[in-house]
Amino acid sequence: MKKVCVVVGSRANYSSIKSVMRAAKAHPGIQLQVVAAASALLDRYGSVVKLIEKDGFEIDARVHMLVEGETPHTMAKSTGLGLMELPTIFDYLTPDVVLTVGDRFETVATAVAAAFMNIPLAHTMGGEVSGTIDESIRHAITKFAHIHFPSSKGAAERIIKLGEDPESVHVVGCPRMDLVAEILRRANDGLDNGELKRGVGDQIDFDKPFVMLSQHAVTTEFGQGIEQITASLQALRRIGLPVMVFWPNADAGSEDIARGIRIWRESGNADGMHFTKNLPTETYIRLMARTACLVGNSSSGIRDGAFIGTPVVNVGSRQSGRERGANVIDVSYDADAITAAVERQIGHGRYDMDPIYGDGTAGEAITRTLAETDEIVVQKRIAY
Amino acid sequence: MKKVCVVVGSRANYSSIKSVMRAAKAHPGIQLQVVAAASALLDRYGSVVKLIEKDGFEIDARVHMLVEGETPHTMAKSTGLGLMELPTIFDYLTPDVVLTVGDRFETVATAVAAAFMNIPLAHTMGGEVSGTIDESIRHAITKFAHIHFPSSKGAAERIIKLGEDPESVHVVGCPRMDLVAEILRRANDGLDNGELKRGVGDQIDFDKPFVMLSQHAVTTEFGQGIEQITASLQALRRIGLPVMVFWPNADAGSEDIARGIRIWRESGNADGMHFTKNLPTETYIRLMARTACLVGNSSSGIRDGAFIGTPVVNVGSRQSGRERGANVIDVSYDADAITAAVERQIGHGRYDMDPIYGDGTAGEAITRTLAETDEIVVQKRIAY
Amino acid sequence: MKKVCVVVGSRANYSSIKSVMRAAKAHPGIQLQVVAAASALLDRYGSVVKLIEKDGFEIDARVHMLVEGETPHTMAKSTGLGLMELPTIFDYLTPDVVLTVGDRFETVATAVAAAFMNIPLAHTMGGEVSGTIDESIRHAITKFAHIHFPSSKGAAERIIKLGEDPESVHVVGCPRMDLVAEILRRANDGLDNGELKRGVGDQIDFDKPFVMLSQHAVTTEFGQGIEQITASLQALRRIGLPVMVFWPNADAGSEDIARGIRIWRESGNADGMHFTKNLPTETYIRLMARTACLVGNSSSGIRDGAFIGTPVVNVGSRQSGRERGANVIDVSYDADAITAAVERQIGHGRYDMDPIYGDGTAGEAITRTLAETDEIVVQKRIAY
Amino acid sequence: MKKVCVVVGSRANYSSIKSVMRAAKAHPGIQLQVVAAASALLDRYGSVVKLIEKDGFEIDARVHMLVEGETPHTMAKSTGLGLMELPTIFDYLTPDVVLTVGDRFETVATAVAAAFMNIPLAHTMGGEVSGTIDESIRHAITKFAHIHFPSSKGAAERIIKLGEDPESVHVVGCPRMDLVAEILRRANDGLDNGELKRGVGDQIDFDKPFVMLSQHAVTTEFGQGIEQITASLQALRRIGLPVMVFWPNADAGSEDIARGIRIWRESGNADGMHFTKNLPTETYIRLMARTACLVGNSSSGIRDGAFIGTPVVNVGSRQSGRERGANVIDVSYDADAITAAVERQIGHGRYDMDPIYGDGTAGEAITRTLAETDEIVVQKRIAY
Q1: Contact A87 B77 (CB under 8 A)
Q2: For residue B353, what is the enclosing H or E element?
Q3: Chain A to chain B, count of Cβ pairs less than 8 Å apart?
């Protein structure tokens, strides 16, 4: 039995790895270990750990590692805290492989702990290009990782250019597309209105046209969050459709985005807007399949959006460099530009499905590869 | 005044950055900040911090971050501890640039803290190739760094292949060669015999032929240290010349190397051998200019040895992949092979000077570049 | 110059030590050092650090040490984080005395770090009796402290009974009373309505009768917060006067209290209620001088209330054991009991001033004692 | 099944709690949990964790928490590290009671973590009086603990004076006496000479008269260790009997003691002296039953010595205040005074057994009490 340990540090992490966890749990040759960490443990981020348990997974360890503050300072400190504790946990769980997801700051703790401890490290979603510190994190983790599971061909090529052994690179698609595909297959299921009514602000009738706004902090533009979110809110007020507004993820700068939203609300400009924290992935994907346009800088617009065909207006630098389909229009933090782009997308309507980020089979593919890989040489060596 | 903060975490770190510190301190446009950390603070590694102060530098902060154990586990944990504290210190010192050295584990804490906090990160000795976890660390730090100061052309090319902006890569040579060059220029100065008599074991007459043994732990071969050092000791006993044996650096596995040496001594095999902890760089370099052969896996054999022309027998995988001059013979952990190679080197004698790792001007070049670089874009972007 | 280092970890900490800081700063024989830590650094607790700077103090170091979660688990972890960092800071600042305030969890980090490092530790507000883990923390810190500044005679007697040297115990009153006295002396200054209008909910006319509710988590009754706060809210709805409701302090369990408040609001029961985070001490004290009754379990009701004469209904166990004046009626977590007690207090009106917690001269007294104490023997010895 | 979690942080810890662990493991109503931490995990302190496993106990978690340096600074930092990790482990193990031993610095981490997390805390060896920071630590832990197991009646009285509930105080004797009693009962077993021959220096014939020297750092006299140990070594050279010298425990200042010993050896004064790290408790106790005199400041001289009747010369302040039997002569750090006292003890020979620290039944008594205590009220309250 090969012990595969997944460290889940956030809601986004979980939806990006859940289909792998499901496949690994079902595989006879693999023993799945789950470490829940960082914001995945916290009520105020929607208690992802409870969701994981509800989905039938057992939690092997819980690591509280978020230092309060949501600044670049505390982001570094939180990573340090995780890096101090994970060795104790890896020593206890003795995994054969550690699987880390994507490019969030807590991922660095997982990657460094495993690599330093000579535990083979598998990494999903490497090789992509984006803005923020995630861009550096992602490629640094690639340099620590022993097995790579990029989401797209372009990403795989980039990993190989980074000097990784081509035999260690497996293009499998993004595991989150597995969930998206599954949800869309059950298209007849209605929306869970209970979930949608939570949060504050006006209620929205999701059978009529509506817009979504999901805009997160750009860590490398720390301090500019209030202006950034305000431009988007202004644009959407002009559009006039109801808006489902999502609170930002926990990141350096997210407090600014949140403050921008609060100021907006308290200034009495929030007619027709509903504010929500975290929706179940299922509900979120269904909304993406219905919305007239998704505005902001969430990677879901570019990744899930390609698969679903959601019209997306991507604002600012957070996703710059990421491969994208025809469904995305890029604009700067400018209310006029955002308004124009949203109008164009509303006019266009839903796009065709584009499988650049996977076709819905990543979880199985990753699991099979992990089960079949016999000997992983821990000593890495750059290819050039 | 541009504030340049250097984090010095070990004796090796210090000798690899001292000439930069000296040049930076003297430069009118730069305010040097020095953080002493990890083994640089500890008596049992020769109290490097006192040496730094004796050399005329002021210490701005001290970070005790070594968790006892010297295993891969505690190496990760120590890095986490550093990563938790450095943000407090960087917030206090508000450096304009953080300068990190090489590829030791504590360097990861410096690099991640600075990069996460949007402080431009400069990195020396990137782009090289070696064994152990250093290989992964070095390239990962490159992916976090904004300015690169590789030691050799080959290293610079590798950094660019890693997707870094060629304009951010400055081939300056290794700053340690600056010290080596300076010491060799003062060739008439004698050896400091006080220093050399410290330690335990038989005394050596350094005016007659002698051999040096400096062999460190290979973190990715954790658990094999006793056998590895024993093969070298056996070979040198056969050679019969006096041997200056150096205790290993603090690393995962160094306890095994040390135990191997202790067992050797207690078994009564140490005739003609002297055991020493840490020599001043000056004394060490002078020994390298006199020794009949340096045996082991210290990078100094390959780097300083190229400049000095020291005959070197490099044992095992720790330095594999590193560019080397004609002065190095590579062998495996095998007493016979080591014996044969040492005999060949003793027969050959000193080699010609080879400037692959620099010509002794790196400190000035790095300082000038740091002083002249105006705007550093914190947001990185892979080149492909 | 004697270096006196104060570690301020929260808003409550600051108001309990500010008058000492002011006197120390003005004293020619003392150099004041200020470390801002924990919730004192955070926006969401009202950025106390900015207030400290606005009051003219310089911050010597900032220690982010709050691990997110607000559970007993993270309270312990946060203390550990503080204890890991404070040695670095104390080594840097080399204080002659460390001054720690009261009995919050972060205080343990300050006390242990100073005592372990052989730095004389001064402690205010020891010897009192209360509920929650604070009860254990307070007496444990007394056992680490070298100079004691209790607020009341009863507290001083208790410290001596704990085996402390009577010569090290100085009854000076609570420094917070210094602020209270000063604010009441400027009684003609009006309320700052800008501050009071912030927050959410209905606006209150403070020239007419109103009630205040300030109820915090009881860490040793973790998990019961929602019921506890709900009983108080129900009682106050029956009373019918406008209510100024304060969000709870950061403590294990505060999330439950906050959730109880949010549920109450979202259930539409919050007519006439205003919800506020943190008022400046000045404004808070003025409200206490006007309110018809203060309900909850804040120590301010018992301490400041005694000096001001505020009618107080103290709910539950959090303050049990604390010396109190005639102005306090104690009740359990029971809506009926709370209602009856509030009605009695409204009928009674303001009480006479009672100096059990000090007469407004503590800051000067503590400063004088610290300046005059020559030699502090670091080695403690229990008196029996 | 009541889950009782013991945190073992050092060799001394283990021998002070082993008989409780044995009894708890055998008790049908108790599930024993063992956390190995701090120096108990380290090779250079004799790998106590392996000993624990060899004795048949399973290790539930391992916490590397020693920050290198052995200064007051790193002692505080190490405690912080432990306090950061233990919450994760206690959350995982969900103990019903945490049992902490004595008064070493790592014990503070255990006590604070358990108390903050509302886990009932049992404490052995409270209420005693000694020098160093242990004196403060011990009484502070008493103020956090819910069940007290003092070793002597005097200690029990002191705990009650500290304001603890008399019903929570159980005089059981020191569990280490259980081991001592057992070893003495098997008096016919010979010494394990293999163990005794390890270490360095001259070999000793233990069938002839010999002296033991076990002297540790006094944390509150940090910086004076070299002089302190040198006085003792000088005295013993004058006595002329063979000396078994023990390296010091890991504590702030132990590096100084060790250096003093190394200087002594390297100065060629070590004729007839043997230097050893850690003996198994069994071997150590047998030596104490044979030695002409035990010199130094180990608590074993006073505690075990009372039971065994060992002639002891106790040097300096480390044990001052501790109850002692007739077998102890106290002297200052003065070579003449030490010489005279040792001569007197050699003249006297072995003393009668004195049960002040227990009669050999503590392990059973503590286990029974823990098993039978039904409800522990987590909220403490000082008795006066």
Answers
A1: yes
A2: none
A3: 161
**CATH domain C189-357 topology:** Rossmann fold (3.40.50)
Do residues B95 and B33 lie in contact, with contact meaning Cβ atoms separated by under 8 Å? yes
CB of B46 within 8 A of CB of B277? yes
- CB A112 within 8 Å of CB A22: no
- Fold classification of D182-357 is Rossmann fold (3.40.50)
Nearest chain D residue (CA) to B80: D81
Tell me which of B75, B78, B104, B117 to substitute to probe the interface with A (most A C-beta atoms closer than 10 Å). B117
Given the candidates 1.20.140.10, 3.30.460.80, 3.40.50.2000, 3.30.565.10, the CATH classification of the domain at B182-356 is 3.40.50.2000
Instruction: Say which DSSP state C130 is in.
Output: -
Closest chain C residue to B63 measured between Cα atoms?
C88
What is the rounded CA–CA span in Å between residue D347 and residue D311? 10
Residue with tokens 């024989």: C29
Domain coordinates of chain C in residue numbers? Answer: 2-173+361-372, 189-357
The pLDDT of residue D200: 84
Per-residue pLDDT tens over the stretch B234-252: 999 999 999 999 999 877 8
Mind telling me how many Å the CA of D54 is from chain B's nearest CA? 21
Q: State the Cα–Cα distance between residues A103 and A107, nearest whole angstrom.
A: 6
- Start-to-end CA distance of chain A, whole Å, equals 35
Q: Which residue bears the tokens 């950034």?
A: A228
**What ipTM is given for this predicted complex?**
0.89
Q: Classify A73 as helix, strand or coil.
A: helix
Q: Specify which residues A124 forms β-bridges with.
A: A101, A149
Chains in contact with C, where contact means 3 or more Cβ–Cβ distances below 8 Å, are: A, B, D
Q: Is the pLDDT at B278 greater than 90, yes or no?
A: no
Is residue D115 a contact partner of residue D89, using CB atoms and an 8 Å limit?
no
Side by side, the strands of the sheet bearing D2-8 are: D61-63, D30-37, D2-8, D97-101, D121-124, D147-149
How buried is residue D14: exposed, middle or buried, by Cβ count under 10 Å (0-12/13-18/19+)? buried
Question: Token digits for C251?
Answer: 């403590």
- The superfamily in CATH containing domain B2-173+361-372 is Glycogen Phosphorylase B; (3.40.50.2000)
Tokens of B172: 């300056």
CB atoms within 10 A of CB D156: 21
Q: Write out pLDDT tens, residues D107-162.
A: 999 999 999 999 999 999 999 998 889 999 999 999 999 999 999 999 999 999 99
Q: What is the C-alpha R_g of chain D?
A: 20
Cα distance between residue A3 and residue A6, in whole Å: 10
Computed over its alpha carbons, how large is the radius of gyration of chain B? 20
Residue A33 corresponds to which amino acid? Q
- Top-level class of domain A187-357: alpha beta
**Phi first, then psi: what are they for B251, rounded to 5°?**
-155, 160
Which positions ≥6 away from C341 have C-beta within 8 Å? C313, C329, C331
**Which residues, in sequence order, are bridge partners of residue B295?**
B213, B313
| Spatial separation of the C-alpha atoms in residues D7 and B6, rounded to whole Å | 39
CB contact under 8 Å between C81 and B85, yes or no, is no
Q: Shortest CA distance to C67 belongs to which of A74, B116, A86, A65?
A: A65
Confidence of residue B320 (pLDDT cuts 50, 70, 90): confident
Residue type, B91: D
Query: Do the domains spanning D2-173+361-372 and D182-357 agree at the CATH topology level?
Result: yes
Angle at D29 between CA D25 and CA D35, to 5 degrees: 40
Quote the pLDDT of residue A344: 97
Report angle CA C254, C255, C261 to the nearest 5 degrees: 95
Q: Say what the pLDDT of residue A221 is.
A: 87
Cβ-based contacts of C85 with chain B (< 8 Å): 84-85, 88
Chain A closest-CA separation from residue C291 CA (Å) = 28
